[in-house]
Amino acid sequence: MFHFFNCAILTFGPHFVYFSATPLSEYDTLGTSIKAAIVYLVTALVKLVCLATFLKVPDNDNFDPYQELLKLVIGLVDVAGLYYALTQLTHRNISQNHKFQAVGLGWAFADSVLHRLAPLWVGARGLEFTWEFVLQGLEANAHLVLTISLAAMGSLMWLRKNKPKTLIPIIYLCAGILATMPSITSYLRRVMGWHFPEVVGFQLFTSLVMAFISCQLFSACQRPCF
């Protein structure tokens, strides 16, 4: 159980730390995060139905361009869900800066619970230490950063009206990269032959780079345009 608790803290702890260490805890944004988590669960259900309907069960683990393209298209349901969470949900007098963080945090937490809690509970309670669940925790941290970055790009695309025109292509490019990260990591695993630790390392590095770029873009768009 000690290994389970350590891995659980690594997987889910950063979400609570982020909420407590940022102004989100001071501006009554918990409701926004909960609503975003509910939207994520509905989105995940829609994706599951689409995947079960349109994708065939592969005979092997080889990279199938058609199947991956179909997964990419179905994965855009996440973008639609984020759009709804950012633009259609009612938010109680919180700024745009806090809104995208609260939505991204709730979205990432729901994803971690849905995809990582059960494997963690089943596998990490054993007596033997394994790096697999530590890597899953690190992957969850990378996903948290990537999701908040995607929410930031969505906020700039859909909510920020007076952004500099020179930054618009960069914003859409970054959003496209963030939205297609699952397909990118699938390509690295199946075509390039990367192992799980290498993929997680790539996700961590990419999350830091995209977080830095997103922060710079958001700051640049906050400045008044003349």
Question: Can you lay out the helices and strands and say which pair or pack?
Answer:
Blueprint: H1 2-21, H2 30-54, H3 65-87, H4 96-123, H5 131-158, H6 168-179, H7 181-190, H8 196-222
Helix pairs in contact: 1-4, 1-5, 2-3, 2-4, 3-5, 4-5, 5-6, 5-8
Average pLDDT number: 88
Radius of gyration: 18 Å
Distance between the termini: 59 Å
Helix content: over 70%
What about the largest sheet? none
Helix tally equals: 8
Q: Uncertain spans, ≥5 residues at pLDDT below 50?
A: none
> Based on CA inertia axes, which overall geometry fits?
globular
Structural class: mainly alpha
Number of domains: 1
**Multimeric state of these chains?**
single chain
The fraction of residues in strands falls at under 5%
- Beta strands, count: 0
Order of helices and strands: HHHHHHHH
Write a short abstract of this structure.
This is BOS complex subunit TMEM147. Keywords: Cell membrane, Endoplasmic reticulum, Membrane, Transmembrane, Transmembrane helix. The protein is an all-alpha fold.
